[in-house]
Design a protein that fits this description.
The complex is a heterodimer of chains A (364) and B (240). Chain A is α+β, with helices and mostly antiparallel strands. Chain A contains 16 helices and 12 strands. Chain A is globular. Chain B is 36% helix and 30% strand. Classes of the chains: A alpha+beta (364), B alpha/beta (240).
């Protein structure tokens, strides 16, 4: 069923979007992971084209091309993704708000709209999970971790297996595996922590080895990161902080109890997240128009491991089966990655309308 | 229904020689009908076996489609060429030749990159720093994607490379490579190093059994006999 009345009431404009797109924007933002699921073909002059694997990027591209400062858009149609099993064409609908700075109000509005949308597709019993990388970032800052580890942990946020692997290595004190020995002329500059000298030696070697200049990572970048890593190898994180991280990531709570849980967390681990927590709690409070048949859980470790998601994320599942019915979040970095000159706030959600394979089956 | 089985073996080079030698030792002497140019062969005294001479990557493809019953080809090609290969392949017997590793290698001068987690760090900052994703040159799309996924790495691009992959970083066509190496000397000559945890796959030639080929009882028996005879010669158990 169409959610058009719901979306129009929220000020959305229906976009009729192309099916075929230049493949590069998808590849540049989401990486090869999406590429593996994309149907890619060649255009008449050899350019790579793709069947749209989602709607968010097409909507963003539309917005950028329009030149409008802000916009509210919705869509309904098929997306095309390769799966080892299951349908490759799936019908989706969704709503995106681009260029509106009232972040927490927009987030709250989108969450409520997604819940109502899912309800109108016929789902009565649902469970919503909310996460926010902001609280995790606050924890990383409070723990005073070396910057390189902070970045690694932040990137692993939402990728469970990766996070687990990082934490167990940190806990075992294995952050500092042996580094391979450097050639003597480099080792001298490295030992002296002299980035300029090290970069110069590297530049000489690059040239001697026949590398095209400026083809990729340059000597300065490599020298700087090498010295930064060296500092990291000399630092140690310790099992104490790992336990704090683990306790945080395992935290699940009803949104209204978040403040209480963070207070318990402070007492148990000596880390005060009340400032970031209070901000988040205020935003969560707005989401909580209680609804029959809806459970809401704030899950401290829930996130999406894509670098353009910057804040609140959520998904809605069918309570009994656990099937994902909708997902969304704030992606303030995406438009810039797609070519905007300055960051543009943006957030949205997608609701699954089922695969066309299923409806074909049902028709039989 | 036909009662013969088709065994695909490499049509040229050392892989062909080693395969025929091993089959001979196991009592399966390969003969060519009408001279060396034919693409079909027989096994003396074994009318139940047809030989198809194909390139190693065609063998993997035909096994995946179930158009040949058995084939001798590299494990790298089985994993790369056959979608969901674990389900399409009924058994694998390592044959002890054609050894080579599929590895991920970076320029030696990336002194700050020793292991996959370093590469992950570098990939994460690449777009912001260089205006594009980290590029990986390879002909092994599928193996590379699965490996990087297992390391939680998504921020990269694959550029297809159909030859001289090891030259891609110096030429500025890619930043790192995934390629096959047996001695490492080509990597070294191109000033590349394998990451500490960068061996993706230790490959060798395998007798590979297609799960999707049509199998009658007699065909299963013929395949089992061949596999047992090879196993005897090689002295290693089958997998999978």
């Amino acid at each position: 069923m169409s959610l058009r009345p719901l979306f129009e009431a929220a000020g959305g404009r229906l976009l009729e979007l192309p099916v075929l797109y230049a493949a590069d924007p998808f590849l540049e933002t989401a990486g090869e992971d999406i590429r593996r699921r994309m149907f890619v073909t060649e255009g008449p002059s050899g350019e790579r084209l793709a069947l749209r694997p989602d709607f968010t990027i097409p909507v963003c591209l539309h917005h950028l091309a329009s030149g409008a400062p802000s916009g509210r858009y919705f869509y309904e149609g098929l997306v095309f993704r390769r799966h080892d099993r299951g349908a490759t064409e799936r019908a989706e609908t969704g709503f995106e708000v681009i260029g509106e700075g009232e972040r927490s109000a927009v987030d709250a509005e989108l969450v409520a709209m997604a819940v109502e949308g899912v309800r109108r597709t016929g789902l009565a019993e649902m469970r919503m999970r909310i996460g926010d990388i902001g609280l995790f970032t606050a924890l990383l800052a409070a723990l005073d971790l070396p910057p390189a580890w902070r970045q690694r942990l932040r990137r692993a946020f939402g990728a469970e297996a990766k996070m687990q692997a990082l934490l167990s290595r940190l806990a075992a004190g294995e952050a500092n595996g042996a580094r391979p020995a450097l050639p003597p002329e480099l080792a001298e500059a490295a030992a002296a922590h002299d980035a300029a000298a090290l970069a110069e030696k590297l530049a000489e070697r690059f040239e001697a080895e026949g590398y095209q200049p400026y083809a990729g990572r340059g000597p300065e970048e490599i020298a700087a990161r090498f010295l930064e890593q060296q500092a990291l190898y000399e630092a140690s994180v310790g099992p104490e902080k790992v336990r704090v991280l683990e306790a945080f990531l395992a935290m699940e709570t009803a949104p209204q109890a978040l403040g209480e849980r963070l207070e318990e967390f402070r007492r148990a681990h000596g880390v005060d997240l009340s400032q970031a927590g209070a901000r988040l709690a205020r935003r969560l409070a707005k989401l909580q128009r209680r609804r029959e048949g809806l459970d809401i859980v704030f899950s401290a470790g829930f996130g999406r491991p894509l670098d353009y998601y910057t804040g609140l994320v959520f998904d809605i599942r069918e309570r009994a089966s656990g099937r994902v019915a909708a997902g969304g979040g704030r992606y303030d970095r995406l438009l810039e990655m797609l070519g905007a000159e300055a960051p543009i706030p943006a957030a949205g959600f997608t609701i699954e309308l089922g695969s066309s394979g299923q409806s074909a089956e049902a028709a039989r | 229904m036909s009662e013969t089985i088709t065994l695909a073996i490499p049509s040229k080079g050392r892989l062909m020689e080693e395969t025929e030698r091993l089959l001979g030792q196991a009592g399966y002497e390969v003969t060519r009908q009408g001279g060396a140019r034919k693409y079909r062969g027989q096994v003396s005294g074994r009318p139940e076996i047809d030989i198809a001479f194909l390139s190693a990557s065609e063998i993997a493809r035909e096994l995946g489609q179930g158009r040949v019953h058995l084939g001798v080809t590299g494990l790298d090609l089985v994993q790369e060429t056959i979608p969901a290969w674990r389900e399409r392949v009924a058994a694998l017997l390592p044959l002890g030749f054609g050894h080579a590793d599929v590895v991920i290698a970076v320029p030696e001068l990336w002194i700050d990159v020793a292991a996959m987690e370093d590469l992950d760090d570098v990939a994460a900052g690449f777009l912001a720093r260089h205006g594009r994703r980290l590029r990986i040159a390879t002909k092994y799309w599928n193996i590379t994607q699965h490996f990087l996924e297992s390391h939680g790495m998504a921020l990269y691009r694959i550029v297809e490379s159909l030859g001289a992959t090891e030259g891609a970083p110096a030429a500025g066509l890619a930043d790192v490579i995934v390629d096959i190496t047996s001695t490492g000397s080509t990597l070294k000559a191109n000033h590349l190093k394998v990451l500490a945890d960068g061996v993706i796959l230790r490959s060798e030639a395998h007798l590979t059994t297609s799960a999707d080929a049509p199998w009658s009882a007699a065909q299963k028996k013929a395949a089992a006999e061949l596999s047992a005879a090879l196993q005897e010669v090689v002295g290693r158990p089958a997998e999978g």
